[in-house]
Amino acid sequence: MDSGQLDTISVKTSDNVTLGYSVAGLGSRLVAQILDNLLAIPITLIAVLLYGALANVFVTSSEGAGFADAGAGFFAGFVYFGYFFVAEAVTGGKTPGKSAMGLRVIRVDGSAADFGALAVRNVIRVVDFGVVLIGIVIMFFQPQTRRLGDLGAGTIVVRDRAMVTLAAAVSPPPIILRTPDAGPHIDGLDRIGSFEHDALRVFLSRPGLSQKLRADLAADIARRLLDRLGLPPGAPERLWPPELFIERVYLQLDQRHP
Amino acid sequence: MTIDAFIAERRGRWAALESAIKTAKRGRLRNQSASDIEHFGLLLRQTSSDLAIARRDHPDAPITEYLNALCARAHPLLYRGRPWRVGAIGPFFATALPRSFRAAWPYMVASLGLMVIGFIAGWVAVDLRPDLRASLVPSSLFDEMARGQIGTGVQDAPFAAAFIIQNNIRVALISFAGGMLLGIPTALVLLSNGWMLGTVAAAVHLGGYDYQFWSLIVPHGVLELSVIVVSGGTGLMLGDAILRPGDLRRTEALARVAVRAVLLVLGAASLLVIAGTLEAFVSPSSLPDGAKLAVGATVGLLLYSWLLLAGRTRRRRPSFRFDRPAETPA
Question: Residue A123 in contact with residue B176, Cβ under 8 Å?
């Protein structure tokens, strides 16, 4: 249920099933950016040093040295911004920093970000980070934390990690304590469905609640169930202890949906 | 069906999909066999139908959350645009780039117009205030022209070429990216490039060195200025998509234009390698001025026959268009 509190985008697939993607927040985006810088900046420095070594060997005049110096600045810029583009293009939208944070670039329609989209978002990175960090300001106000490059490319950064494992997603089995069998038939069970069934199951799978809390909850649930079943005032079920009543309703619902 | 029976019956294929996702490398299924990919598609469709059932029957159960995350991770592996291949470069330059250039002609005309306005303004400024010539144009240029030294060549021409190429690519990419700020930086780049050329040309004209000057500019300038116009045009496209999105949302209109515009600007920017090489090796060389002008004319002829003629089909089929919505009548 964690992602219920995060921003999500809904994507309708070609199978007409709606997928929810949880959108990466500003914090994890910035941490990913910092991690990427830990790689991009050394790579840029090494590239510039190599460029300088090359220039020292081949430059023969002061005019050439001027060109080489000025060219080194541009070269650094290309290597730095090129790192992000190449890293995203090679990995399918996960730079090492994003990968470490469990983030991934996809298109807003849920498909993988392609070459063109990655090119757009990385060329526009120059504006996002070159013009007074306008990208961060826009990410702060944009509901889906997209920067200008994302808006231009139609991309979005989402969480790519599995939030729930299958083992954790399988609900624990219900524990039946009060009754050996489903008991006598209860009328009106066709008025309730799988929603109530699931709710009872959740209640019954938690025997560890304190006695008083469990009894109070059981009384509340049983009262609502009796109302919903529409049992007459004199029905024998109204006299059963709440927990016994709940277990019997649950077992009979179980029999109904094999 | 109870949630337990639902899970017990289907968890096998979820686990299979999960392990198939793990085998994908670099966000792709490229390393897998055709039958594996087909099976992946089957698993994804089955799992998304399980997700739909889980949403309906158990909306708050953790299993629904799990299935959603599983499908969300698998979906982009299967649904993706056409992959980028090295073999696509040829057709891109042969047909797609000239077609998208022609499809974007109003923006190219506007971009050229801005540069011409800058040029005329620069020319008029120098004509009105010839005394400003010294601050606009370095006087060493005139000395060199007077001494006929302009053709002595650049020393360390490879570094000059690298510098020029990188600078121009930077200008081209900034013109494109400036489109995100409503195209205002783009317009400024175009106006200032025109202005610089206009002031220098007017000052040179006053000094009477027109022929030497244009033989210095034209060999690389035809290509270089054309690329600046094209990249400016792509920036204007982005700005226009933001300002006048038509029936689409602004972000949608922008994204539709931008992905095609960036390919246009990257393709055009790759021509700057040729332009920079000409600028470092040919323009300042000791070749006769007439030969330099001939180089420029040839390059221009080749460039525009390619941009205007390549990739035309006999039937006028709009196969590569910027799918902007039709303008609503005012």
Answer: yes
The closest of B259, B216, B50, B200 to A153, measured between CA atoms, is: B259
B124 Cβ contact partners less than 8 Å away, ≥ 6 residues apart: B198, B202
Give a yes or no: residue B319 inside a domain: no
Residue B322 has pLDDT above 60, yes or no: no
Q: Touching check for A210 and chain B: CB below 8 Å?
A: no
Whole-number average pLDDT of chain B: 84
Percentage of chain A beyond pLDDT 70 is: 96
With respect to residue B222, please indicate whether it lies within any of the assigned structural domains. yes
Rounded mean pLDDT, B39-51: 92
Q: B178: part of which helix (H) or strand (E)?
A: none
Q: How far is A241 from chain B (nearest CA, A)?
A: 25
pTM, rounded to two decimals:
0.78
Q: At a CB cut-off of 8 Å and minimum separation 6, what does B328 contact? A: B246, B247
Query: Same structural domain for residues B63 and B144?
Result: no
Q: Do A148 and B2 touch (CB under 8 A)?
A: no
Structural domain count of chain B: 2
> Is residue A68 classed as helix, strand or coil in its secondary structure?
helix
Q: Find the CB nearest A78 among B57, B61, B166.
A: B166
Q: Do B201 and B70 share a structural domain?
A: no
Q: Answer for the pair B271, B222: CB distance below 8 angstroms, yes or no.
A: no
How many residues comprise chain B? 330
pLDDT tens for each residue of B120-161? 999 998 888 877 777 766 666 666 666 655 555 566 777 778
Decide: helix, strand or coil at residue B25: strand
* Residues B124 and B13 occupy one common structural domain: no
Residue of B nearest to A90 (CA): B26
> Is the predicted ipTM greater than 0.95, yes or no?
no
Q: Once rounded to an integer, what is the mean pLDDT over residues B69-86? A: 83
List the single residue in A126, A151, A257 with the smallest CB-CB distance to B173: A126
A164: chain B residues, CB-CB within 8 Å:
62, 65-66, 69
Domain of B175 in residue numbering reads as: 92-309
